[in-house]
Amino acid sequence: MSEADNTEARPTDPVGRVLYKITYVLSLFGGFVLCAMGVLTTISVTGRYFFDYPITGDFEIIALGTGVAVFAFLPHCQLMRENVIVDFFLSATSRPFQSFFDMLGNLTYAFIITIMVWRLPIGGMEIYDTRQSTLILAIPQWSTFPLAIFCLVILLVVCFYTTIRSYRETRPDGAL
């Protein structure tokens, strides 16, 4: 939807309010992780430049943190209609028409996330079984998978919620 519609994105129904609180906390956590990565990078670059002593394995921590932050942000972005949306062709159409295509997009996204929720645990178990770890710090690579899976499950619930919300917006009476 367009930026003008973002003020209407915050849900007012009971399910939406609960999802909003959960996704908001996840996004705050993601923001905290991003801030921590910024501090880590600053300390490492400063240490490398002035003292020739960077933080060992900083890029490994940044890589893991980036994955965590991205997964933490996705549910809130979807709920608030802030994911990538191209509305150039639909901006001049009616709200129900736009909502129909939003519904199709949300349903497609839900399908993709369903596949990810199915496959990510399998990949995580394989990485756990083979004991893969980062090269320098030997951090187990599976360690971020549980949080990523949790975030994806929340995202899947949000996708179904936003699909229903968009469907309701296509109907004049707002009924399911």
Question: Explain this structure to me?
Answer:
- With 176 residues, the protein is mainly α.
- It has helices at 14-51, 58-79, 95-129, 145-170.
- The chain has one domain (3-85, 93-170).
- Helix 1 (14-51) runs antiparallel to helix 2 and helix 3 (95-129) packs antiparallel against helix 4.
- The radius of gyration is 20 Å and the shape is elongated.
- Residues 1-5 have low confidence and may be disordered.
Average pLDDT, rounded to a whole number, is 90
- Globular, elongated, flat, extended or rod-shaped: what is the shape? elongated
Computed over alpha carbons, the radius of gyration is 20 Å
Helix content: 55-70%
Q: Helical element count?
A: 4
Helices, strands, pairings?
Elements lengths: L13 H38 L6 H22 L15 H35 L15 H26 L6
Helix pairs in contact: 1-2, 1-4, 2-4, 3-4
Key attributes of the depicted protein:
176 residues, mainly alpha, 69% helix
At a glance:
The protein is built from four helices and no strands. The protein has helices at residues 14-51, 58-79, 95-129, 145-170.
